[in-house]
């Protein structure tokens, strides 16, 4: 059964009910007590997101300072349930203007009830597109795209749009200037051993799109990926142009993309929703260009002293630069005193996370700043266990750089009125979990 | 911009309810609306605002959609408690269902379906009929789901009014969302019905596969889930289906991907071409890997499913082991599952890399994770013969770090490795012996003792080592005592010198005289007799060759695996249990394993030792191998009614499945000894009946600061003569842990005289605390025996043969029989069997039979109007003195 929920609860960290909505009769109203006593108030909390108590099962997720709990008594579709929660939170955020926390929920509880009634029926998720829901679930405080034209309040064909074949775009949009913004955002995940061997490395990228297009446009996106290019040259019976091609390990698409067509023709064609959305996600493991190399040496000198040397090398083009670089170097809990020198940026000892935090705001390519630190430890007699060294972690953003080498080759827009479109493309690479063991 | 609704949560000093009442009846619209909001806010935080029912319903007739929705929300929550008043709302509902605005039409039907009051349901039929044929697809898609709601309340009504046919027509609707909801509704109705209602023909199949392309993401899930049970006629059809489903693997919604994987795996079973299969495996790998970049909760669901998938199709992810390497910041539940999959994917090709990872994990902070990592190394050694040596050297390196729990865990797995590769790696024993002093956990101690006993002839100072343990023999937990006993016997048989002879005398004395543990005592007696009558025979038995254990990492039974694969993406695939095991209509049969955090972890490890052969080492779960007689091979362990069998406690162990970590649970047990009274020891208990036997289902929770052990129980004389049929099996309880046990009970043992009473007085003691006394209420329903079903004729015969003086009756004024089938099922689960039903005027009369212990028949007659409160219950039985208890039992069964 694809049922996802019999009841949904929103609880704050104390376990107070903020929102409760029963969808089916098979779970009792007191189920939230069971959750509180058997999960929230025990050390179970956080050890497993799916838990059975008596005849019911609980799925829960924590989002900022709120727990969203789903209760079922049947063999429900768990994947569907969690995805529903994720999407619902995204929907609420888009209604509340970004924040989703206890205060936002209390301040909008009537709206939340109204939305919960709309997005799930008898435990079956229904349409959750913010774009469409904002057509007919509007509250005074919430600005819908048309609230400027207040007279038009009940949108006459809202229901047709909810259920329409293009359930994510409304008709009759008009823009003076037709524009599309493409953001290619890549996260590099790296796990490197202390000896400098790459244990795992991959890039998860997403293409974010912001559309301000009139009418019902058909879009087609071309990338420099291998399969797409090969297929294209096959169809047009001309050889592939030279240049770098990328092998995508996997791609997933927003529901607007025609998957059958992608499967047969390898082209990404779609009718986009209005405004901002995530068009596709991809994953690449081969041929990743790592933007940074980290070379740590950590020496424990006796029981009370440590010497830390970290060199970070940027390996992208010299004309480019990275922003917001943070290197977190773990130190033992019993650190008493630290002194360090850096050749660039600033460093600080942060006792709350037991790390030396080294920040470099602007980090040009082909440079290699270093940090050297001396650390004094409080000698403890009882310390039985040797220090388990957590990995060094890095954060960064490199604009106009893609670790995968992915490029947008073209974005074609067709609309029956035949207007011209302006397309903007940006690239950025961020650190995902960028870990170097030491 | 956000609104400020939080003001509605604030309360005033004056009585809240009267104030709200006043505001609800205000003449100003805005004030009424605010009042309804306050009511909803109060409802949310759990205050009872049902007394405002009439006032809220009066606000229902409004043009304001927001207000209307709030009133409807209120109705959904409280209509059931005020069925008579709910009828007030019907008119508005019916009117709304004809509103020109489709949003309101749909809202009315959607809400009516959620109000489970019979009278309202009747009025729902006409609007529903209209809405199923509505021009607006939004109304139709809402009506489709409403049919499923109605079926849940009143299945007959749905069938009589032909809603099923209308629903089937909607499958051909031109709107994909209507189709998807109709499919979801039909699939659910089919799930709850035994008749074929929604049969998927090849025609519907192809129609639905076409609809897939246009559906919303959720609609795709409904359709894929409904179609996953379709059995293709031949390989060709299967290939066709797969081809049309494969594009879904690229969907961004994880639920769509998993449902597509489920369907493809199902159809793959039929596909014979190896090329096609290989190709499909290749296509499924990337989407499965991508699921691991989702939210951790979704990752967890994906990992549990991948665990199943790699058991059936190991090739899919054979080359992807790296993606399962743990990230430092992964939540613990993700790490644990990744580890499990890494073990499954470990092969000769990648083992070096995997071992490096495991070694890294073994130095992390989380103790449970570290332990599991160490154990994983051992499991790889058992699985991959060629890598065993490398695994052992990693374990030895870890032992040298001297972190206490790492060492103990390593010793436990090394014991398993010794059993897998006998006479190969004994050279490392010396290293192990160095860590002897640090062992403080029973399992590790027992493992070490087993190793010493097993290899006594190669360890020069084996007798000294064992002797060092013997000093504390009486204080050791049972697990260790049993191993010490066996190991000493082995030592004596291998080195029959003076030292061991003295030791064995001490151990046997201790184990027979000084202990309360029957397992230990019985095992000691067996050894004693064997040694004194025929030492050669003792040698044959105790030193017999042990069966070699095998790898267990593919540990699910194939038929169970099949069932779980059909259930991919559902709870069943997350729990790794078939749906029946946790989905229950009757609470009585609910089951779960106590340690189900990582269910397969502990279960699988215990299966490392499939046969507890003679003097076998302690298994890695908390099993007490003593329940298998050391003297008889496992195959002969069937209950033999001779002295030996009795002595070994065989008849108990054949009743109580001691070696199953799965203790039954079901609804939480009532607390009989609260922690405040028990100095931190809390006991919850209840009588239950399972497999034809009465058990005392007990849960011990140790909230005190000290470990508790040596639990014993005693029952005072009682009306039914209940007494324990075996010893109480509770392992040592560490502070903060709990244990569950099923204590088998017998009846008519120590009957008390005097007036019948359902009080059960229990005394419980342990080695650390004073004796605790507590009272429990005997649940009479545990006594109804399984053979209570009667033929109609026999029923009538018995009814007639009993004199009227044996008939007693009682009224249950507050109880309603809602669904007849559900009630019959529930009673049957407690061994009260349905005989017949007849109509008497407007009342329904039901007959049931049951049997009390000693074969005393019990005949029951229930008279009621289905759906209305009030039941008259009459019983006839040869022992009417039990009637109070019987009524109590029936009442509580009907109520639940």
From TrEMBL, chain A:
CDD domains in UniProt: AP-2_Mu2_Cterm (cd09251), AP2_Mu_N (cd14836)
GO cellular component entries: clathrin adaptor complex; clathrin-coated pit; plasma membrane
SUPFAM superfamilies per record: Second domain of Mu2 adaptin subunit (ap50) of ap2 adaptor, SNARE-like
PROSITE patterns: CLAT_ADAPTOR_M_1, MHD
Membrane-topology annotation of the record: Peripheral membrane protein
Gene Ontology BP, a term: endocytosis
PANTHER family the record matches: AP COMPLEX SUBUNIT MU
Name recorded for this polypeptide: MHD domain-containing protein
Species in which this protein is naturally found: Trifolium subterraneum (Subterranean clover)
From TrEMBL, chain B:
Superkingdom assignment: Eukaryota
Origin organism lineage: Eukaryota, Viridiplantae, Streptophyta, Embryophyta, Tracheophyta
GO molecular function, one term: clathrin binding
Membership in a protein family: Belongs to the adaptor complexes large subunit family.
Main location: membrane
Bias (Low complexity) ranges: 625-641
Organism (species): Medicago truncatula (Barrel medic)
Protein name in the entry: Beta-adaptin-like protein
Region (Disordered): 590-644
């Amino acid at each position: 059964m694809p049922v996802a929920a019999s009841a949904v609860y929103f609880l704050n960290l104390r376990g107070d009910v903020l929102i409760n909505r029963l969808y089916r009769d098979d779970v009792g109203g007191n189920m939230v007590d069971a959750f509180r006593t058997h999960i929230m108030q025990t050390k179970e909390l956080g050890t497993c997101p799916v838990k059975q108590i008596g005849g019911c099962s609980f799925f829960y997720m924590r989002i900022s300072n709120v727990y969203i709990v789903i209760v079922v008594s049947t063999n429900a579709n768990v994947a569907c349930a969690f995805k529903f929660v994720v999407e619902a939170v995204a929907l609420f955020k888009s209604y509340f203007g970004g924040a989703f926390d206890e205060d936002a929920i209390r301040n909008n509880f009537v709206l939340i009830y109204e939305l919960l009634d709309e997005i799930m029926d008898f435990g079956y998720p229904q349409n959750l597109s913010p774009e469409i829901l904002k057509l007919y679930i509007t509250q005074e405080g919430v600005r819908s795209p048309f609230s400027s034209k207040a007279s038009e309040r009940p949108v006459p064909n809202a229901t047709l749009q909810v259920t329409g074949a293009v359930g994510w775009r409304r008709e009759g949009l008009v823009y003076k200037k037709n524009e599309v913004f493409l953001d290619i955002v890549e996260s590099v995940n790296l796990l490197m051993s202390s000896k400098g061997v790459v244990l795992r490395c991959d890039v998860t990228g997403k293409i974010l799109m912001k559309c301000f297009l009139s009418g019902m446009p058909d879009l087609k996106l071309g990338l420099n990926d291998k399969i797409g290019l090969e297929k294209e040259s096959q169809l047009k019976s001309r050889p592939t142009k030279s240049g770098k091609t990328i092998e995508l390990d996997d791609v997933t698409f927003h529901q607007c993309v025609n998957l059958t067509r992608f499967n047969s023709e390898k082209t990404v064609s779609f009718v986009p929703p209005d405004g901002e959305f995530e068009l596709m996600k991809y994953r690449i493991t081969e041929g990743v260009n790592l933007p940074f190399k980290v070379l740590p040496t950590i020496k424990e000198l006796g029981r009370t002293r440590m010497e830390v040397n970290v060199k970070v090398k940027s390996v992208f083009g010299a004309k480019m630069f990275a922003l917001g670089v943070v290197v977190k170097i773990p130190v033992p809990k019993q650190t008493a005193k630290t002194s360090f020198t850096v050749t660039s940026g600033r460093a600080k000892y942060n006792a709350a996370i037991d790390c030396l935090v080294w920040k470099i705001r602007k980090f040009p390519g082909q440079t290699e700043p270093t940090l050297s630190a001396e650390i004094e430890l409080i000698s403890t007699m009882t310390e039985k266990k040797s220090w388990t060294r957590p990995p060094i972690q890095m954060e960064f953003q490199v604009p106009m750089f893609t670790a995968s080498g992915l490029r947008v080759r073209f974005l074609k827009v067709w609309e029956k009125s035949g207007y011209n479109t302006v397309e903007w493309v940006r690239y950025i690479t961020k650190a995902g979990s960028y870990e170097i063991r030491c | 911009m956000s609104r400020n609704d939080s003001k509605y949560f604030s309360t005033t000093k004056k009585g809240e309810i009267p104030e709200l009442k006043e505001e609800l009846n205000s003449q100003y619209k805005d004030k009424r609306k605010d009042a309804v909001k306050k009511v909803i806010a109060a409802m949310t935080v759990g205050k009872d605002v049902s007394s405002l029912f009439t006032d809220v319903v009066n606000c229902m007739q409004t043009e304001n959609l927001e207000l209307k929705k709030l009133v409807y929300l209120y109705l959904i929550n409280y209509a059931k408690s005020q069925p008579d008043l709910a009828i007030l709302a019907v008119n508005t509902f019916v009117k709304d269902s004809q509103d020109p605005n489709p949003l309101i039409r749909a809202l009315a039907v959607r809400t009516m379906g959620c109000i489970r009051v019979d009278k309202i349901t009747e009025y729902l039929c006409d609007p529903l009929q209209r809405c199923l044929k509505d021009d607006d697809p939004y109304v139709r898609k809402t009506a489709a789901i409403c049919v499923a709601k109605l079926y849940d309340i009143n299945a007959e009504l749905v069938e009589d009014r032909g809603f099923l046919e209308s629903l089937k027509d909607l499958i051909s609707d031109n709107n994909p969302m209507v189709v998807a909801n109709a499919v979801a509704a039909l699939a659910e109705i089919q799930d709850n019905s035994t008749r074929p209602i929604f049969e998927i023909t090849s025609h519907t199949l192809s129609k639905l596969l076409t609809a897939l392309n246009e559906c919303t993401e959720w609609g795709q899930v409904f359709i894929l889930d409904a179609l996953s049970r379709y059995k293709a006629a031949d390989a060709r059809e299967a290939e066709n289906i797969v081809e049309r489903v494969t594009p879904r693997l690229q969907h961004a919604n994880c639920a769509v991907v998993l449902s597509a994987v489920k369907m493809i795996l199902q159809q793959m079973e039929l596909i014979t071409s190896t090329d096609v299969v290989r190709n499909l495996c290749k296509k499924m790998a990337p989407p499965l890997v991508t699921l691991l970049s989702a939210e951790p909760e979704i990752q967890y669901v994906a990992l549990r499913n991948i665990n199943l998938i790699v058991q059936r199709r190991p090739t899919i992810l054979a080359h992807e082991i790296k993606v399962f390497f743990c990230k430092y910041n992964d939540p613990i539940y993700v790490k644990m599952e990744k580890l499990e999959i890494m073990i499954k994917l470990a092969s000769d090709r990648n083992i070096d890399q995997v071992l490096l990872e495991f070694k890294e994990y073994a130095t992390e902070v989380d103790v449970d994770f570290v332990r599991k990592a160490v154990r994983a190394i051992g499991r790889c050694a058992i699985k991959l013969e060629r890598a065993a040596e490398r695994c052992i050297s990693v374990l030895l390196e870890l032992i040298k770090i001297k972190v206490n729990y790492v060492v103990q865990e390593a010793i436990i797995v090394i014991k398993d490795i010794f059993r897998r590769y006998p006479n190969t790696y004994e050279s490392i024993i010396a290293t192990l012996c160095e860590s002897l002093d640090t062992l403080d956990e029973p399992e590790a101690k027992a493992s070490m003792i087993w190793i010493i006993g097993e290899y006594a002839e190669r360890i020069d100072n084996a007798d000294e080592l064992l002797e060092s343990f013997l000093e504390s023999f009486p204080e050791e937990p049972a697990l260790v005592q049993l191993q010490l006993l066996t190991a000493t016997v082995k030592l004596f048989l291998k080195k029959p010198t003076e030292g061991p002879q003295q030791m064995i005398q001490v151990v046997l004395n201790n184990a027979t005289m000084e202990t309360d543990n029957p397992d230990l005592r019985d095992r000691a007696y067996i050894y004693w007799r064997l040694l004194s009558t025929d030492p050669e025979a003792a040698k044959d038995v105790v030193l017999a060759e042990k069966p070699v254990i095998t790898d267990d990492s593919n540990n699910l039974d194939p038929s169970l695996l099949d069932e779980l694969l059909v259930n991919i993406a559902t709870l069943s695939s997350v729990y790794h249990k078939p749906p029946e095991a946790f989905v229950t209509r009757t609470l009585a049969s609910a089951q779960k394993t106590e340690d189900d955090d990582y269910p397969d972890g502990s279960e699988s490890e215990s299966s490392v030792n499939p046969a507890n052969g003679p003097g076998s080492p302690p298994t890695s779960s908390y099993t007490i191998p003593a329940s298998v007689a050391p003297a008889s091979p496992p195959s002969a362990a069937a209950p033999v009614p001779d002295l030996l069998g009795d002595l070994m406690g065989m008849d108990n162990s054949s009743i109580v499945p001691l070696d199953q970590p799965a203790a039954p649970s079901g609804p939480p047990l009532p607390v009989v000894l609260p922690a405040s009274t028990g100095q931190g020891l809390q006991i919850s208990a209840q009588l239950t009946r399972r497999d034809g036997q009465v058990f005392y289902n007990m849960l011990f929770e140790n909230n005190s600061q000290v470990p508790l052990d040596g639990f014993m129980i005693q029952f005072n004389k009682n009306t039914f003569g209940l007494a324990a049929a075996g010893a109480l099996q509770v392992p040592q309880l560490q502070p903060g842990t709990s244990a569950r046990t099923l204590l088998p009970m017998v009846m008519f043992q120590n009957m008390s005289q005097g007036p019948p009473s359902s009080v059960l007085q229990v005394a419980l003691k342990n080695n650390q605390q004073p004796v605790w006394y507590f009272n429990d209420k005997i649940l009479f329903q545990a006594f109804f025996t399984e053979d209570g079903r009667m033929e109609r004729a026999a029923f009538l015969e018995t009814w007639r043969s009993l004199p009227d003086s044996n008939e007693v009756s009682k009224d249950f004024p507050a109880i309603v029989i809602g669904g007849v089938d559900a009630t019959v099922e529930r009673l049957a689960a407690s061994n009260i069997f349905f005989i017949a039903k007849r109509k008497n005027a407007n009342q329904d009369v039901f007959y049931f039979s049951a049997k009390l212990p000693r074969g005393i028949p019990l005949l029951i007659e229930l008279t009621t109007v289905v759906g209305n409160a009030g039941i008259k219950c009459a019983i006839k039985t040869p022992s009417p003195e039990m009637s109070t208890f019987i009524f109590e039992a029936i009442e509580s069964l009907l109520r639940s």
